[in-house]
Write a structure and sequence with these properties.
The chain has one domain. The protein has two helices and four strands; from the N terminus they run ββββαα. It has a four-stranded mixed β-sheet with strand order 2-1-4-3, with no helix packed on it. The relative contact order is 0.18.
Length: 85
């Protein structure tokens, strides 16, 4: 391997912003924030909108995570076209 071309692979805390679930793993993601973990050490913090703690596949519950107003824009553009029985 060439020196200096690979990103740093280090421990990073990922935080699910919709459930406040956090976990420590290794990653090359660039972050600006840090957090003190349960072991007392400070680690880079990466925030995620969806993780296994909030994804419908893992939770079994349907939950709409709309951080950018996408659902409202879609409904405004296309209206409610659901057929009622």
């Amino acid at each position: 391997m060439k020196d200096g071309i690979h990103p740093e692979y280090r421990p990073v805390v990922f935080q699910d912003t919709s459930t406040d679930f956090s976990f420590l793993t290794k990653s090359t993601v660039n972050t600006r924030e840090t957090v003190v973990w349960e072991d007392g050490n400070e680690y880079p913090l990466a925030k995620a909108e969806l993780t296994s703690a909030s994804h419908p596949f893992y939770t079994g519950q349907m939950k709409i995570v709309d951080t950018a107003g996408r659902v409202e824009r879609f409904e405004k553009r296309y209206g409610s076209r659901r057929k009622s029985k």
